[in-house]
Structure formats: C-alpha cells, structure tokens
Amino acid sequence: MAKKPAADEPWLLEFPEIEAGESEPLVNPLPHPIWTENKAKLIEAYLRFFLYITHHGTYIDCFAGPQQPGMPEMWAAKLVLEVQPRWLKRFYLFEKHPKRFQQLVELRAHQPEDDTRIIELYEGDVNLRIRELLDSKSITEKQATFCLLDQRTFECHWETVRLLAEYKKEGRKIELFYFLASKWLARAMSGVRDKTILEKWWGRNDWQTLVGMKPDKCADEVVRRFKTELGYASAKRWPIFNSTQPGLVMYYMIHSSDHEEAPIQMRRAYAHAVTADQSEQTWFPGMEPQP
Ligand SMILES: C[S@@+](CC[C@H](N)C(=O)[O-])C[C@H]1O[C@@H](n2cnc3c(N)ncnc32)[C@H](O)[C@@H]1O
Which listed residue, 29, 160, 204, 286, has the most CB atoms within 10 A of its CB? Predict the structure, then answer.
C-alpha cells in the first residue's frame, strides 16, 4: 500500500488550485497525492462519478495501448471499458504501435457481447487519424464526450488538441484529460534534435519560452492556453507523483471541461484513486452500482 506522506511533505504545496476571483467552481485542498501507478484509476474513477451526472457517454483514447505490459489494472482503456454501470456506449481507441494495437484488438474481443456498444479501433498516428473520427460526425453535439490524451512527452500535436476542443459547435466541448510531462520535460526538450517535433507538440514556434521555466509554471501556461485559446470554462492541473519519491511530480494531468461539476468530480476521483489497494470508499451514497 502506498505510504501516506507526512503533512509537511512538499506535495501539499502543489495544490490546492483555488483560483480566487474565477468563475469556475473552487475545489478543496487535496488530502493525498496521487501516484503514477494510479493514473488509470483516476480516469476510471472520474468517469464513473461523472456518469452519474450524464448517464451516458463517449470515450476517446488517443494513446490507448497499455504502458505497462502485464499490468492490466494500470491500463486506462481497459478500466474505462469495464466501468459500471455500463453507461459509456461509444469508445474510439487509437494506437500507433502494432503490438500494442494488437492488445487493443484482444481487449475488444474479450468484452461481453453488447449490441448497445460501439468500440472502434484506429491503428496508426492519432494526429492523422483523429480527423477520420471527427469528420465522420459520429459524435453528436449532445453526447457527453471524454478524451484521454495520455502522451509520454511530445506525441500529441497541439493541432489534435485544437481539433478535439473545437469539434462541438453548440454543446459542451469534448472534455480533455491532457498529460503533460513534468519531471523529464526540460531534458526531453533539450534532447530533441528535430525541433519540428516541439513545434507540432506546442502548436507554435515559440516553444522556446518554456525553456528554463519551472515545471509547474509550464503546466500553468498550458492551463492558460486551454482556457484562453481553446475556450474551456475550467482547466486545472492535477499533479501525478512518483510513489517512491513523495513530492516529485512526474507529470500533470490537465483536465479541461465546460461542465461546472467537472472539477468537483475530479477532486473526488483524485481522493478516491489515491491508494493502490483501493481501500477507500468506492461508492458514495446513492451511487451504488446496478446489478
Ligand atoms: C503513455 S502510453 C499510454 C498509456 C495508456 N493510457 C495506459 O493507460 O496504459 C502512450 C501510448 O501511445 C502510443 N503512441 C505514441 N505515439 C502515438 C501516436 N502518434 N498515435 C497513436 N498512438 C501513439 C504508444 O505506443 C503508447 O502505447
């Protein structure tokens, strides 16, 4: 079981993101940090809580293959497919790596038969293939849609983020969970020889402004872009920590949504997903799973 850090450990200083004077809902300080091992559980818990508000949903996973082979409990796409009640009805999963794509094929093959569900798999570069999904217009304005952008470092082009954010014209925008590397970002930036990779990731040629910036400030800058450039009503950064070095932020999950409940439910999911053994209360009163 993950050790609970002492109250004076530095992760406590990372949050809360209480942004006085902003219109979006405020959330309370976090009681515990979340470990990298539990990031898939965070997404799963959030969707489970949120489905009690929407009662339906569509899930897009742009980097859907499993990061840790042989660790299915840490695989977001698998956990999300298994969320109960089975109110998520449409799944669009992208993966570039052929072997990992094959694992998605197997994952789909092992799902219980269900005519009410669609699980579409896209092999190849999501930055190219996302247009096929969006151009097909299979996602309607009213469908609550959640998109996981779990890149390792620079794989997700800003243009892909923009296309997703601008897809809906009237309804609430597609909700995004965007992973931003923190611990290794600066080193990775300086190590990239082909600078067009950075330009595509950042979506502009002023990515140099991030060089030398503290990781939390980089995350703030991305948060700012989600709000000002992409127009999300709420964007918050949620630190994901290294379990062996409390206080060390591995990456930030930047959660953007137009729904006023979104940060509140994320706060709840974060507290819930905190322990690897899931010993915390799973269901809130009135939220019991259906048989
Ligand atoms: C960080 S892992 C995703 C982890 C996964 N969300 C999980 O819960 O285990 C990133 C995945 O994206 C894939 N990938 C990298 N670049 C990609 C691209 N351009 N398009 C689609 N998939 C890509 C990698 O092969 C890898 O499987």
Answer: 160
Q: Which strand (E) or helix (H) includes residue 147? A: strand 145-149
Q: Which of 71, 96, 103, 164 to mutate to test the pocket of ligand 1 (most atoms within 8 A of CB)?
A: 96
Minimal-distance CA residue to ligand 1 atom 16: 155
**Locus of tokens 């669009």:** 92
Output the six-digit token pair for 1: 């079981």
C-alpha 197/C-alpha 200 separation (Å) is 5
Distances (CA, A) of 132 to 29, 65, 93, 142, 286: 40, 19, 12, 20, 39
139 Cα: distance to centroid of ligand 1 (angstroms): 22
Residue 286, exposed/middle/buried by CB under 10 A (0-12, 13-18, 19+)?
A: exposed
Decide: 182 in ligand 1 pocket, CB within 6 A: no
Residue of 211, 220, 205 lying closest to 191 (CA atoms): 211
Q: pLDDT per residue over 56-86, tens digit each?
A: 999 999 999 999 888 898 999 999 999 999 9
Which atom of ligand 1 has the smallest separation from the CA of 39? Answer: 8
Topology (CATH level 3) of domain 10-275: Rossmann fold (3.40.50)
- How confident is the model over 145-185, as pLDDT tens digits? 999 999 999 999 999 999 999 999 998 999 999 999 999 99
